[in-house]
Every structure is written in C-alpha cells, then in structure tokens.
C-alpha cells in the first residue's frame, strides 16, 4: 500500500514534462492539485480496499505532477541571488506537511473508530484545495510566457518580480532581453524531443537524475516511511514509537531552516558534501547500536536518527529539488525535470518495497548499505557536480559548454524581429517602440500621488491580474495605454481613470 502512490507519481511525472510545456506551469499546478484532491477524497470515503488503492494511485498522479512542475516554476520565477533560499523554503513546506501528518496520526491513534484513519487521509483534500486556490492567483512563469511568445504578459510578470512593477525598470528590461534572446537561440537547436535532449544535454540530464536517485538511496525513506518500525526495533513500542517519530519530524523541519541562509552563500556543493559525511556517520552508528542491543540502544538510536534526519534535511533534502531545474536549459527544463522527478519516484518505490524485506533479512546491516550510498554520493558530487550558486539560469551554458552558439544564424535574426514588433515590450536595445514622454510620465505620477495612489505591491497586482485577465486579453495589446506606451503597474489610461476613479 505504501508503494502504490509512488507508482502513480512515477507515471504522471513522466507525462507532465510535455504537459508543462504546452499548458504552462500555472495550469499544471492547478490540475495536479485537483487530481490530488480527488485521490484524497476517494481514500477518505473508501469502503473497500479497491477504492482505497484507486484513490491512492490517483493521489500519486497528482503528487507526480506537482513534484515535477513546482520546482521548475520556483526556479523560473526566482532571481539568482536567492534562488537557492526560495527552493529551500519550498522544501521546508514539504517537511512541515510530513511533520504535521505524523502528529495528526499520533493524535488520531487515540480514536477508537474509523475516524482514526479517515481524518489523516482527509488532510490530503485540505492541502490539495489550498494549493488549487493558490494556483488561481499566482503569476505564470515569465520564462514560459516568453518561450510561447506571450511577450507582453511575460514583461509584466518580469517587471513585478524584478522592477517593483515598473516595466521601464532597467533591471527588468535587461532580464527580459536576456531571457528572450536565450529562447530564440535555443529554438535553433531543433526539435525538443527526449532523444535530442539526451544527445545534446546528456551530462546535465544524468546529473539531474543522479541527484534524485542518490537522495533516495541515501536512506531517507527508511526513516520517513518506517520510522515507527525503526524505533520499535530499538526498543520503543506502540504510541511511544509514533511519538518519537513526531519529535524526529520537528527536528527534521528545524534542520531545513539553516539552508535558507547558507545555500546562496556557501553554494550547493559544500552543503551536499558535508551532508553526505554526516549521514554516513549517523547511519553507521544507528547500525552499530542496533547491533549491540544494549540498555542505551533506544536512546542512542533516537539520537542518531535525529542527527541523520537533520543532516538530510539540511542537504540532500532540498538541494536535489533545486539543482536539476536550474542546470537544465529552458528548452528542455520541463522534460528534464520530469525525468529527474520520475527517477525520484522510481527509487522511492524501490526503497519502499525493499526496506521491509531487507529489515527482516539483514536487520541492522540495512543501514550500512545506505551509509555506503552516502559515500558514493560524496564521490559523485565531488567529481561531477559544478557549482551553480549565483549563476543566472541563462548562463548555465557557460558551466557545461554544451549549448548552441549559433548567434549569427539568419533564423535567429528573423526570430529577433519578434522583439521589434509593435506589441513587444522591447524593440531592440534602445526600445524605440516605447515612446516615453518624461513630462507625461511625471504628470501621471503626480496625479497618482494626489489621488492617494494605488497599491503597487505584488499581492495587489496579482488580484488585479485575476480580475482583469479577460479584459487585458481582449485589448490585443495588453498593458499599453492610449499613448502607445506601456503603463506601469498600478496606473491606468487617463480616460479609463476619469471614468472609473481610483481602484485599489
């Protein structure tokens, strides 16, 4: 039953790579959330084992979609100076969910009827519903928008992420041009098939897949899935074993906080290497004390399980979700991330299936096997993983040296004309289509100040985007004022403002 969800996640993670390129990151998150909600509902209302298994595999479909596309989305909306921090915060949310589930299980363990298992399963519906609602107000990935030639919408998103809502902000304009030119160059590489991806970007894809495989082989699911069994084997029984699992979950979460501040300072490699060392030592000592089976074994196993979980939560927990999307180029990012995530779920399933068997056959030696994989992880990272800290996504090519360099191709020049069409935010380095009258711009700002202004925060902008999405699409030139210029976020055309007044 534990591994059924992984089967669904594996299947959907292979499919979602193409889906994310076609319908976008935001829509994929919405559909994944809804599918996860349906799976959770079937499990909660299950009256037969068949219904329970169906719900679990459907929930797995949703998990596979979300675990593939969310890291891609996060990497594409994050600036390079704190991309790692935001990915680590995302992983912390994952661990909060795990820890909460353990404590819900512990509390429901005292209930003496069917609610003892229906309530924990219902929590899936709550989380799925919240994520689905959230997907309705988040922005689309600007890189996906530019890759699909939705330049105007992409520029608006970039302006809010990099330019405080001002499309004339130099940093936002530079970011737009960098992303768009990268898109145009990658188009010259031909079809974006999986075969072409392996031919051109084999090293990157294999590194991305290895990160997820090693994360699972390092033994985390021996603790996550079978923590009560591990503690029982060390002498804790019944509710005490679940209680220890809950305390371990709290330690697990706390360990994910330091990377918020370290990953963009130390880099990815030092964190992965140091984490592998700590996990090797912890797993070896867990094995040693279970083998001794002395009076202090229960306490020592709990101690080193917590140390192991802390080491994983600080290193091999978040980084394998951050690293693959940032090293993969935009043209194959979604497909490459799908293979990376599918690798995660394949080895997740393998570990989930083999752990109870190996615990029965080889007992304490199981932890030594995972300690060996931690050593292998250290070696692989040391010799093959380049440092990506602070590197822009469009500059990863310089690290791997496997991208197209056809800057002078005539087809690229033809594609570059898309940057100069009337509806484009840019028409070249000097932006000739953006007719900015400084006096008029000052008048607009003065009018906004005297009228109380309008909230230009990202949150307020998101609400306006949701309310006015259909109107902006109908205009044909989203974001353009009657003067033929892009209106900064929070500013409306004078004629519209006079008719509708100031809206917040």
Automatic annotation (TrEMBL):
Keywords: Membrane, Sugar transport, Transmembrane, Transmembrane helix, Transport. GO terms for cellular component: membrane. SUPFAM superfamilies: MFS general substrate transporter (SSF103473). Residues 475-485 have a biased composition (Low complexity). Residues 465-504 are annotated as: Disordered. Its main location: membrane. PROSITE patterns: MFS, SUGAR_TRANSPORT_2. Pfam families: Sugar_tr. GO terms for molecular function: carbohydrate:proton symporter activity. The chain crosses the membrane at residues 28-46, 121-139, 205-229, 241-263, 270-291, 303-323, 364-385. It is found in: Membrane. Residues 1-389 form the Major facilitator superfamily (MFS) profile domain. Residues 489-504 have a biased composition (Polar residues). It is a multi-pass membrane protein. InterPro entries: MFS_dom, MFS_sugar_transport-like, MFS_Sugar_Transporters, MFS_trans_sf, Sugar/inositol_transpt, Sugar_transporter_CS. Gene3D superfamilies: MFS general substrate transporter like domains (1.20.1250.20). It comes from the Eukaryota. Belongs to the major facilitator superfamily. Sugar transporter (TC 2.A.1.1) family. NCBIfam families: SP. This is High-affinity glucose transporter. The gene is HGT1_2.
